[in-house]
Write a structure and sequence with these properties.
Elements (H helix, E strand, L loop, with lengths): L3 H26 L4 H12 L1 E2 L20 E3 L6 E5 L11 H6 L3 E2 L13 E3 L22 E3 L6 E3 L12 E3 L4 E3 L14 E3 L11 H7 L5 E3 L22 E3 L20 E3 L6 E2 L13 E3 L4 E2 L5 H4 L6 E3 L21 E3 L6 E2 L13 E3 L4 E6 L12 E3 L4 E4 L13 E3 L21 E3 L11 H4 L5 E5 L6 E3 L2 E2 L1 E6 L4 E4 L3 E2 L5 E3 L4 E4 L2 H5 L7 E3 L4 E5 L12 E3 L4 E4 L12 E3 L4 E5 L12 E3 L4 E5 L4 H4 L5 E3 L4 E4 L13 E3 L4 E5 L24 E4 L2 E4 L2 E5 L2 E5 L8 E3 L4 E5 L12 E3 L4 E5 L12 E3 L4 E4 L13 E3 L4 E5 L18 E3 L30 H12 L2 H4 L11 E2 L1 H12 L1
Parallel strand pairs: 3-5, 5-6, 6-8, 7-9, 8-10, 10-11, 11-12, 12-13, 13-15, 14-16, 15-17, 17-18, 18-20, 19-21, 20-22, 21-23, 22-24, 24-25, 25-26, 26-29, 27-30, 28-31, 29-32, 30-33, 32-34, 33-35, 34-36, 35-37, 36-38, 37-39, 38-40, 39-41, 40-42, 41-43, 42-44, 43-45, 44-50, 45-51, 50-52, 51-53, ...
Antiparallel strand pairs: 1-4, 2-3, 46-47, 47-59, 48-49
Bound molecules: 2-acetamido-2-deoxy-beta-D-glucopyranose (NAG) (9 copies).
Length: 892
Amino acid sequence: MTTPLPISLFHFLLLITSICFTICDANSNLLCIQSEREALLKFKNHLIDPSNRLSSWVEGGDCCKWIGVVCHNSTGHVHQLQLAAPPPVDFAEWDAYRQSKLEGKINPSLLELKHLSTLDLSNNNFSSIHIPKFFGLLESLTYLNLSQAQFQGAIPHNLGNLSKLQYLDLGGNDLKSKSLQWVSGLSSLQYLDLHYANLHKATDWVQVTLKLPSLLELHLSGCGLQNDPSPISVNSSKSLVVLDLSGNSLSSVPKWIFSLHGLVSIYLSGSSLVGPIPDYFGNTSFLELLDLSWNYLNSSIPNSLYSLNRLQFLRLSQNQLQGTISSAIGNLSSVTHLDVSENQLNGTFPLSFGRLESLETLDCGYNLLEGVVSETHFYNLTRLTTLAASQNRLRFEPNSSWIPPFQCERIELGHWHLGPKFPQWLKFQKNLSYLDISDAGISDVMPTWFLNLPTRFEYLNLSSNQLRGEISYLNVSNFVDLCSNRFIGPLPRVLPTLKFLILSNNSFSGSLFELLCNSSSRMEVLYIDKNLISGDIPDCFNHWQDLEILNLGSNNLIGKIPPSLWHLNLTMLNLRNNRMFGELPSTLQNSPYLVILDLSENHFSGSIPAWIGDKLSNLVILSLRSNNFDGHIPHKICDLQFLQNLDLARNNISGVIPKCFNNFSAMATTNKTNKEVHGLSWNLYGDSFSLSAILVLKGREDKYGSILGLVTSMDLSTNSLIGEIPKEIASLVGLLSLNFSGNLLTGNIPDSIGNMELMESLDLSMNRLIGEIPPSFSNLNFLNHFNVSYNNLTGQIPTSTQLQSFENLSYMGNHLCGPPLTMNCTSKGIPTYIANNGSSSEGSKVNWLYVSIVLGFVMGFWAVVAPLFFIRSCSIAYYRKLDHICGKLYVF
Ligand SMILES: *[C@@H]1O[C@H](CO)[C@@H](O)[C@H](O)[C@H]1NC(C)=O
Ligand SMILES: *[C@@H]1O[C@H](CO)[C@@H](O)[C@H](O)[C@H]1NC(C)=O
Ligand SMILES: *[C@@H]1O[C@H](CO)[C@@H](O)[C@H](O)[C@H]1NC(C)=O
Ligand SMILES: *[C@@H]1O[C@H](CO)[C@@H](O)[C@H](O)[C@H]1NC(C)=O
Ligand SMILES: *[C@@H]1O[C@H](CO)[C@@H](O)[C@H](O)[C@H]1NC(C)=O
Ligand SMILES: *[C@@H]1O[C@H](CO)[C@@H](O)[C@H](O)[C@H]1NC(C)=O
Ligand SMILES: *[C@@H]1O[C@H](CO)[C@@H](O)[C@H](O)[C@H]1NC(C)=O
Ligand SMILES: *[C@@H]1O[C@H](CO)[C@@H](O)[C@H](O)[C@H]1NC(C)=O
Ligand SMILES: *[C@@H]1O[C@H](CO)[C@@H](O)[C@H](O)[C@H]1NC(C)=O
């Protein structure tokens, strides 16, 4: 008789629970309207919700408490659907963010929400569906945000029926519209964002949008818009406050902008604007923000700009502006951000900068400003946090007791003249985390107070000065460049977070042990080349997983390559000019990402392994020059499709030149741009960096940086190669330099070599070649270094502008005749005597300028490349400018 009790208790509890449910449900029904709840559930059922973000949306629940749902607090009608995917705060959240995106279909059940005024589906992923047409029936909508939600196709014109709509944000989707006529129905619209929609064909865009009576903000960046040249009456659109037309093809600043007197913000960056900055900005007197960066504007800064005394943000960078910065700039009393970098402004650094009390960020870098900067220039700049003015010809030597009125976080004064003493005023910068005072004429002992500053730098560039002394510790978290100074003593200790360490071209000595073995490291880039480091490379790379670029060239290193180095995924390994030895280990196969491998000028030996062709398939530069390698050249090497520079010179390599060399496709194209060469450049802090390499061309070592990707060469000289020169070599029509000299090659010179029309340097000297110089050689119009001396060539030298311009030395030791030799040919083309050998070798001197002109000619952007051709300073070429300019050229 004990069992019934629990059963009845159970029933009782069940009853209580069901009563409770009924009551709760009744309570919630006060708010959530059943038909709307069902509509929402139906809507949910057609969505894909990978992260279960809508887990609160369940049958029977109070839909007004569901996530993303906002009901009216008295009527209970659903008023808002806030279903934007929450954006990630940092990179680590990226995966979670992707997961949180809703996908799938949008069910018309939403039409049941008669009072819906806000619909936000932004940041989700409705990939490949169109914006549903029924949205045009959601009559109560005042806010519709579908931005960045992967919608595609034409924008439904019936959205124009939403006459209550105040905010319409469709930006960042893959949409298009042939006309914007539908927008004219949106009579309440205050905010319109269609950025990235293709409106190329919507030539009515100005007429329609400017007639909207309430419009405050218009965002049409990246829409393929062109200027509407027809006269426009903009009477109705006095209200417009924000206008964003950046990233279009406007070609000039639209005149109608200046009749919008209420404008506060104008974004016209990257809009292909050419010609002068118009002088009408004085009309837009409420202007607080003006962005004209990334265009082709080529005037001076018009005076009307200086009268905009409400302006807070002015960006004119990345243009071709000329002339001086007027002292009237001091009138911009509200300006907080001023960016006039990268153009061609000249004249002085105006004293009136000192009046800009509100200034927080000043960027005038990469101009032609010159003269002396004094303490007065900074007098009132108490709020300055960023002073970026590198690459001008300015001199700043304040009184040694000067205390700056500002506390900067970022100071960039590279290329200024700040020396010879180390700038004492930096002592007072308590918040400094980014400092570039490279190439600043500082010739001083590194002050200990600087190394002991309490702040931790993120970025420190002191390169190309004449700083002396030892550095025991670098308190820098991310990037250090100390190259080309006179530092001595052991390598400094660094923070484990450091990613870039560049110590090239100093006199650091001692071993690598402390740096490599005593800590784990996040280092990605390590340059210690051109120092006095000795001993062997310790086998401690197991904790250096992130290392990609390693340059230890030109030190006094001995020993073998440590095995742990091959456990990394290196992009570049440079050990050139040391005293290392040993064979190339098979573990080198574990470095498939190598783009540059330079082991030249050591004592490495053994044969060149065949697997190089398979396993190091990304190689662009392979230099094994001046070692003791022997054996044959393996045919597999021909699989290196990206290889542009092959240097096996000065070894003991024997056998024949493989016919398959014509497979080097990167050498066989005449049509390449620097950008296509993978792995040679990467980004940091908005600057591009390019890998550099030392190449031997025309008997001369030079360092190539930003244009490395354009250089192609093959040097097999001074080995023991036999057989004929394969005629297939002539397929490598992109080759600029070819050197087979000092081998045992026999037979005729293939006639086809005359087809290698880009060839600038050709050296076949000191072989056993016979026959004539092929007449096709007269096609080699860019040849400026040529040597076929000491073979067994006969006959007349073909006639061309180039071949006759070389000295006798290029031809001597043969049986050649005709100009430029003084020996005349007989009627059979046979000389009677070999001419004099008395002249100097001046004629064979390298004229790389010429080469580059040819390159530029061929590649079409010489003018851009020229100033950056050789790397003057350090191990890596900073070419932020180059990238930008090239970007512009592409646009053109
Ligand atoms: C309802 O909302 C309005 C405006 O949001 C607010 O003023 C009012 O106090 C709310 N009423 C209740 C009962 O919460
Ligand atoms: C969107 O979804 C598609 C298909 O599921 C997927 O291929 C794509 O990567 C997603 N895009 C984003 C930005 O999440
Ligand atoms: C639309 O949503 C995006 C992303 O959630 C947001 O950044 C943007 O400001 C919203 N647009 C409007 C007009 O509120
Ligand atoms: C600035 O450059 C212009 C040419 O762009 C030149 O005419 C002018 O003399 C230069 N001014 C100064 C101060 O160097
Ligand atoms: C600093 O500001 C004050 C007040 O605006 C002004 O009188 C003075 O001339 C300014 N000093 C400099 C050097 O510009
Ligand atoms: C190198 O790359 C491979 C394949 O991409 C990866 O499996 C391996 O973990 C990487 N090694 C290091 C040290 O990062
Ligand atoms: C250059 O190469 C690109 C592909 O990389 C090709 O589209 C273009 O037609 C080529 N141009 C010439 C002149 O061969
Ligand atoms: C040069 O070539 C001729 C044939 O053209 C040959 O008779 C002669 O032996 C060769 N001389 C040398 C040194 O190889
Ligand atoms: C070569 O021929 C020219 C005329 O054709 C003559 O003037 C010159 O003296 C000759 N030179 C020699 C070295 O025979």
